[in-house]
Amino acid sequence: MRRLAYVSGTGSVRIEMDGPSAYVGTASGIRGREWVYTVGYRSLSGITRSARECRLEAAFLDRGAADEMRRVADRDMLNGTPGKLIADGWEQRAYITKSEPSAINDALVKADLTVVLLDGVWRRPHTVQYSPLTVSADGYDFLDLPYDLPYDLGVPSTVSSLTASEWWNSPIKLVIYGTAVNPAIRIGEDWYKVDATVPEGGYMVIDPISRTVTVTDADGNETDVFPKAHRGNGLGSGEYVFEPVQPGTHEVAWDMSYGFDLTWYEEEGEPTWS
Prior knowledge:
1 helix; six-stranded antiparallel β-sheet; Elongation Factor Tu (Ef-tu), domain 3; single chain; mainly beta; Jelly Rolls; seven-stranded antiparallel β-sheet
């Protein structure tokens, strides 16, 4: 493990755990993977990946860093807001539930940390930006040439593309920037629609990990608009707002009156070795 950090769920405090104030070595405790299943007659059922406990051996060279880690972890537990472990670019929601000192001297404090990994998978985000159309297509404002052509010129195509993981389906997060009225985005054959307005200077977040849909205005006020999100008949219905994208390249289409960021998540059972 080359880089490891914990980012708190409350306040977004980032604590580096690969030095110089705190060090966890190779962090082998967070590696490994496990499937949960029920064994039947020549078959498995109920196959899933659940939350699991693991241990980290941490050395704090700065006692202030040990205090900060404890306070941040305890605040996340009290508030019910899991933080994130970020390991070499891979991330997973997590709680630090326990700390047991194993060595104390003038130079450092060593402790065994109990970490609960909540998601069963590690995710690495990839973000693609899609920009709004910034020219007017009204009348002849879009393109005014000093001569006539034997054909008409139209506005640019509103179809773009997205290439996601080659291995398996990927969750996608959308951040839509205002002003946007009832935003609707098509990715492949699936629509992502919310019957709500994103005000100027604000943004909407469709988060498949937390299963939330929110609008934040220019002053930072957040509104829950989950009831206004289209969910169709669930996965595979064509209008499920949390539908993951399948491997490969897909068309992305919208009316281009607003811009948005699309983050697709690469998923693995553990942080990759290579």
